[in-house]
Every structure is written in C-alpha cells, then in structure tokens.
C-alpha cells in the first residue's frame, strides 16, 4: 500500500473515493480518554511503545528484503544439495542452460518422491553406498546455511522469528537497510523524548499505532526542532506568565507582547487577546487550562481559511493536476518544487516539472538539479528569457502525452511590479484553460518565514495578482518568527498548505494546525 503524503493516509484508492465527499473538517484532537494525568501518560507511553515495536518490526522485515544475497554460483548450490546432472553443460560459471536447469528440477522431483516413499516405509530403505561408508558414530557435516532466498518458507519464518526475538535495541543505521539514494541521512530511530512527543501528537489526531511510519516521526521531530527558537521565546515566558496563577490582565498583556515578538502580526494578536480577555471575564483559568485554551485559539485561527478554501489539498489520481508555484526569488520556490516532486513520487503520483521561471537561466538549471534529486523530469526551453507561457505550453503537452498526474510549474519569481506579475500569470492561466481545460489548477505562494512581517508585504502583492489556493511557508527551521503563520492566515485569508523546515528533500510536509501549535507551544 502506498502512503499518500498529501493526505497522510494509506491506500490512495480508498481515499480517492472519499476525496469526492465533502471533506470533513479536521477532527478536534482527542486528548486521552482518562482525565487522570498518570493514566494519560501511561496510555501515551503504551501507544508510543506499540508504534516503536511496529516500526522496528517493519525495519527488520525490510532489512531481510534489502539484504544483499550472497553471490553463490549455481554449482555450489547444486554441490550442497544434489549432484549436478552429469550432462549438465554450464553455459558459464554463473549459470546453466535452461534444459540443464529443467533436468536438475526433474532430479529434485525424483529426490522428493524418494523421500516421500522413504518416510512412508523406512524399512524399504537401502543405505546409499556413500552413507553406508560413513561410520555410524561420525556426526554428519552440518550443511552450509543456504542463502536466505534459497531457504524453505518454514526456515525463513523461523529465521525471522529468531530475528524478532533477538532484536536488540541498538540501531542499524537506516542507510544500511535502504539504498542511500532513497534517504539523505539515516534518521535516528530511538524511543526517545522526540519519539514520544511525536507519537502523542499523532495519537491525539486519531492515528493508530500500527499506521505510524518512521518518516512521520522523523518529520515531526524536524518540525519541533525547527520551531525550537520560536517556542523557547514563547513557551518559557508563557509558562511564567500563565504559571503565576489564574489568567489576569497583566498576563494577557504579556502574551500580547510575546505574540507580536513571534511575528504573529497585529490583527492575529488582537483577535487572540480579545478572545482571551472574554474568557478571562467568564471563568478563572488555571495554568494548564489557560495553555490548552490558547492552543485552541491558535488552531481555530489557523484553520479558519479552510471554511472558504478546499480543506483537502491532495492531487486527484488519474487526472492532470497543475500546481503553479509563485514567490519571490530566494523564498525557497525551487527547493519547494523539488520537495513537492519528491513527496508526489513517494505517494505514487506520476509527476513532471515545468521550469517556467525563465527570468534567470540559473533558476532553470537549479530546477533541473531538484528534478534529478527527486527523480522527476523537467520540461524547460533552452536559451535565456524565453516566454514562460511557451514553457507551460510544452509542459502541458508533455504531461498529457505521458499521463502525468501532477505538473508542478515554477513561475515568475521576481517581485517586479504587480501589473507585470499579473499579466504573466494571467497569460499562463489562459494557456492552461485553452490547452488543459479539465485540469485541476492550484496556485501556491512560497513564503520565507524568516522574513516575518516583511514577507507579508510581498505576499500581499502576489495574493492580489494570482488566484492563490494556499501558501507554502518555508524556512521555519531556525527562525524565531514562527508566529508569521498566524499573520499569513489572518491577513491574507489564505490557508497554509505545506511547511518547509530544512534544506533537505524530506523537509516539507502538509501543514497541520494541530502539529504546528503543539510544536510551537509544547513541543
Ligand atoms: N533552512 C532552510 N533553507 C531553505 C528552506 N527552503 C529553501 N531554503 C534555502 O533557501 C535558499 C533559496 O532557495 P531556492 O529554492 O533557491 O529559492 P528560490 O525561491 O527558488 O530562489 P531562486 O533560486 O533565486 O529563484 C537556498 O539556499 C535553499 O537551500 C528551508 O525550509 N529551510
């Protein structure tokens, strides 16, 4: 089953039939059933342990499948098992002719029949001369262990069982298990604090322990790490403020300063503070409930645009989806295209890239590099400054001839004046309408989170020029301005669809308001 990284679920087909239904809003995170903190910890711990054991088991099975097979020439196998037929003519040391192999299989059949007969009536056995010659007391030589693939089913299962039973905690570097090209570095796999936090976040969103993958854990750990700086700024002071006792006006004033410092922007901050003050007048909030209420406010604010935009952002299978990727040069547009192409490939989509940001030849070359890294072809026009619409036209033609499901278009990246930008994007849309009228078109704005409020001004120009369906927030790792996500949503009214938290090809995932707020406030 293919894990679809766009909706974070297995079995794309089953999901597809659901994709047509009106998507349900994200379920409210379900804190563990009991209210007793130690029970909650216990239930999360056992959930984490189950997820850990399951991932460990999958890795062991994967190791068996990937482990290089000992290169034993057929003669050695034959020597170990049955005498090679005299007239077998080795076509080369590595192999036998087909008829010889068939003959050999025929011999095996005879051996099997003889063994069956012998088991049925042992008294009928004549000791074979060479066996008779071995003195009874000499133990037979232990047969050299056959390579895993040559073992019988029963032997294999027994070996796997032994492996599971003796599986030790020490970590096999994942690179030993998967071809190095498949991953950039072996993510650590240990039942550590990051693992526990990640499984807790996934459990609270309704995930089952057996469905949790190491890649999801690795991503959540990266997200949490990426938001470290913002969180440290927020949470230490937040806990100090809220920890002083029931939420009071001073605390609310300090929270306001914290949100502005994390670049949440004035509008989002005002909304959150107003809601807190209303709550303050209604009831006394002890510290942990105040934190929980603040988290809910942030989640609701981040999810609000989903009421006016499609809550599910998943390319439709067996259909041409065209995603226009816009954003100012340096925001991480090219990197984002490479990462999106990578998760599309991993999720089983036929993907193609059109390098239509032709303003800089270097940008086209860079897209090609990311195409290679993600294993996705890039359609580009040689020569500098060619017409972006021409590249889009070629990209659509190639996509239609190949049955591509997701065409990623790298479009204008320079922040020239709004008019030029609008003209260029309008022209591209016109080409798409003419050439691929039934394609599902989305337009994503790539925004550099480290720019904070400055990035927002750029975003406004793009959001007025292009009919945007969402934002990709990049460079969340290492910035203290993680709060800009709140400003983007509140001031642009656009949903955040993906977030980037690193330069690596794995460092982009669909945005989850629950995970983001947990990493921001209690990671
Ligand atoms: N730390 C970090 N760096 C990132 C991230 N995304 C992109 N970058 C880096 O940001 C720089 C710009 O990324 P690009 O993808 O080239 O940006 P661009 O928008 O295509 O800009 P041009 O290449 O000038 O068109 C590169 O050094 C990337 O490695 C991220 O999520 N985290």
Automatic annotation (TrEMBL):
It is a peripheral membrane protein. One of its GO terms (molecular function) is GTP binding. Its main location: membrane. Residues 495-508 form the SRP54-type proteins GTP-binding domain. GO terms for cellular component: cytoplasm; plasma membrane. Part of the signal recognition particle protein translocation system, which is composed of SRP and FtsY. Belongs to the GTP-binding SRP family. FtsY subfamily. Involved in targeting and insertion of nascent membrane proteins into the cytoplasmic membrane. Acts as a receptor for the complex formed by the signal recognition particle (SRP) and the ribosome-nascent chain (RNC). This is Signal recognition particle receptor FtsY. It comes from Phormidesmis priestleyi ULC007.
């Amino acid at each position: 089953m293919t894990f679809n990284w766009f909706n974070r679920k297995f079995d794309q087909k089953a999901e597809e039939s659901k994709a047509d239904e009106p998507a349900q809003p994200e379920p409210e995170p379900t804190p563990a059933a009991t209210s007793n903190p130690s029970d909650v910890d216990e239930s999360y711990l056992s959930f984490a342990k189950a997820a850990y054991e399951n991932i460990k088991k999958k890795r062991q099975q994967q190791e068996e499948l990937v482990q290089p097979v000992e290169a034993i020439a057929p003669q050695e196998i034959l020597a170990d098992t049955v005498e090679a037929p005299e007239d077998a003519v080795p076509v080369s040391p590595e192999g036998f002719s087909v008829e010889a192999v068939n003959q050999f299989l025929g011999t095996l059949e005879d051996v099997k029949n003889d063994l069956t007969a012998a088991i049925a009536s042992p008294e009928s056995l004549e000791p074979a001369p060479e066996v008779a010659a071995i003195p009874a007391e000499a133990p037979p030589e232990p047969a050299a262990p056959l390579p895993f693939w040559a073992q019988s089913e029963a032997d294999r299962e027994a070996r796997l069982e032994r492996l599971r039973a003796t599986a030790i905690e020490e970590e096999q570097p994942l690179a030993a298990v998967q071809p190095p090209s498949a991953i950039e570095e072996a993510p650590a796999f240990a039942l550590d604090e990051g693992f526990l936090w990640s499984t807790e976040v996934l459990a609270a969103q309704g995930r089952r322990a057996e469905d949790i993958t190491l890649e999801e854990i690795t991503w959540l750990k990266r997200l949490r790490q990426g938001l470290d700086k913002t969180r440290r700024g927020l949470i230490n002071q937040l806990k100090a403020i809220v920890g002083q006792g029931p939420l009071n006006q001073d605390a609310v004033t300090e929270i306001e300063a914290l949100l502005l410092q994390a670049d949440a922007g004035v509008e989002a901050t005002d909304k959150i503070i107003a809601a807190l003050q209303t709550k303050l007048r209604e009831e006394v909030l002890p510290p942990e409930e105040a934190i929980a209420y603040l988290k809910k406010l942030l989640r609701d604010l981040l999810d609000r645009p989903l009421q006016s935009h499609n809550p599910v952002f998943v390319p439709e299978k067996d259909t041409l989806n065209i995603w226009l990727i816009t954003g100012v040069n340096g925001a991480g547009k090219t990197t984002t295209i490479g990462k999106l192409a990578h998760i599309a490939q991993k999720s089983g989509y036929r993907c193609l890239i059109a390098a239509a940001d032709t303003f800089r030849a270097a940008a086209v070359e860079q897209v090609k590099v990311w195409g290679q890294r993600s294993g996705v072809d890039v359609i580009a026009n040689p020569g500098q400054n060619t017409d972006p619409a021409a590249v889009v036209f070629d990209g659509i033609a190639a996509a239609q001839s190949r049955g591509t499901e997701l065409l990623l278009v790298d479009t204008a990246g320079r922040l020239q004046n709004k008019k030029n930008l609008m003209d260029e994007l309008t022209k591209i849309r016109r080409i798409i309408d003419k050439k691929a009228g039934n394609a599902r078109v989305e337009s994503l704005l790539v925004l550099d989170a480290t720019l904070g409020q400055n990035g927002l001004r750029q975003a406004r120009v793009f959001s007025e020029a292009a009919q945007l369906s969402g934002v990709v927030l990049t460079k969340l790792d290492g910035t203290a301005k993680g709060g800009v996500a709140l400003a983007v949503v509140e001031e642009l009214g656009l949903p955040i669809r993906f977030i980037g938290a690193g330069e690596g090809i794995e460092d982009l995932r669909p945005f989850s308001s629950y995970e983001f707020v947990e990493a921001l406030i209690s990671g």
